[in-house]
Backbone:
């Protein structure tokens, strides 16, 4: 009888040991999983196919057209994810329109017509965000100042879309380059349709100067759109504009957040951001 009881107790102890071992393994597995999730490297991202919400701006274009003048008209609307750039796009139709800095909340194109083209460059003023450490937002930012937020990696990897409303249609672009480029070199091609060779040259220039590498397939077969503004981040004597460039979404492509990596070009930006802030919040061009 005693032998039977001892065997029964032994089996009970073995069962308890196995249960405890399984629990310990499960707990360790959960802890390892949490550790991995809490230590994502900068290349990781959270997939979400509803990442960008398309917003129709046709009504806003019609409303803004009421304020058109004899020397400019409203031809579209531009939106940049994560910023306050949600503004009309103007085009000069007379010699009197010189893109006045006193006029708030607009971008412009240097185009001969009001049509959609395979490359569109939308420019805007930056008056109050010219320091070597740009701010992400401010009550004074009424123009394209918030575009400078893309120099910060955390901001760039979370905001990856540009939207244009033109000709009654919505055109959404995946950002593939964030670049400091000489303004005179960036818009040197015809104001109408770019040829494949011109698009290839444009693409090469923007990608080579980009401070990030984007996981976006792009070629000269795609349509491009850029949003740009002036900057003094690289120095007051360096004549460059800051460009955020996207390629048109392809048919059946999902609107998700994709991988963005810092590249060697970012080292210069990182050094500037870590340096002294000149806090140049004065006049712009």
Residues:
């Amino acid at each position: 009888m005693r032998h039977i009881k001892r065997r029964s107790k032994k089996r009970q102890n073995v069962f308890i040991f196995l249960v405890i071992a399984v629990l310990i393994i499960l707990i360790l597995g959960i802890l390892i999983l949490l550790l991995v999730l809490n230590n994502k490297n900068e290349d990781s991202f959270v997939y979400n196919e509803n990442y960008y919400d398309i917003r129709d701006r046709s009504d806003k274009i019609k409303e803004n057209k009421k304020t058109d003048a004899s020397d400019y008209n409203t031809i579209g609307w531009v939106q940049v994810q994560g910023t306050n750039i949600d503004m009309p796009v103007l085009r000069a139709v007379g010699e009197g329109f010189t893109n006045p800095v006193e006029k708030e909340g607009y971008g412009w194109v240097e185009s001969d017509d009001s049509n959609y083209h395979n490359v569109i460059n939308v420019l805007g003023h930056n008056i109050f965000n010219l320091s070597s450490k740009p701010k992400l937002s401010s009550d004074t930012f009424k123009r394209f100042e918030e575009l400078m937020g893309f120099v910060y990696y955390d901001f760039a990897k979370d905001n990856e879309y540009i939207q244009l409303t033109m000709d009654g249609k919505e055109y959404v672009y995946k950002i593939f380059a964030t670049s400091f480029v000489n303004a005179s070199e960036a818009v040197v091609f015809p104001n109408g349709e770019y040829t494949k060779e011109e698009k290839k040259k444009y693409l090469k220039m923007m990608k080579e100067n980009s401070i990030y590498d984007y996981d976006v397939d792009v070629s000269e077969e795609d349509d491009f759109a850029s949003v740009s503004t002036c900057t003094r981040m690289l120095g007051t004597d360096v004549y460059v504009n800051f460009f955020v460039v996207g390629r048109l979404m392809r048919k059946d492509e999902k609107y998700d957040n994709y991988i963005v990596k810092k590249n060697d070009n970012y080292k210069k930006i990182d050094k500037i951001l870590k340096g002294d802030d000149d806090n140049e919040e004065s006049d712009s061009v």
